[in-house]
Amino acid sequence: MPAIVDHDGPGGKPISIFESGAILQYLGRKAGRFYPRSERRRVEVDQWLFWQMANLGPKAGECHHFRLYAADKAPYAVERFTNEINRLYGVMNSRLKDRDFLAETYSIADMACVGWARYWERQGQDIGQFPHLKRWLERMLARPAVYRGMHIRIDEASRVDMGDPKVRAVLFGQRAP
To answer: pTM of the entire structure?
Structure first.
């Protein structure tokens, strides 16, 4: 679960925030960038941010799980989530047909979506079927800050052996205490 602590939070006191959408909203408000002040424009960004949180992120994660990590490559699940990602990419492609960004300008909605969209191959997709999405993705990945963010190496994460039964038990076998 993504989480941050802002040691210079509201009133100069630390604040902890979890979940990527809440983190993006908080940082956008605090920095006054990538998250509009106008309510009408902020609603447009929020719609696409929440669309990612409820659709693109979870379905892409499920697609990755069944295509790449599941011990049992259940054909139904692989097909189901591969098709769902295709449908969601179609939604993005339609949205991007006549615009450069998901909302009016580059925003936290684009930031939230690019991380999942960059893995189109892992999700069994042909990016050529989605020319507007492809154009958007190329433009997003060419942004210097996006490039830097996508190339942060976390040494501990790079050493995780997905074939290790103990790792798999932590990642895929947890239940409520």
So the answer is: 0.90
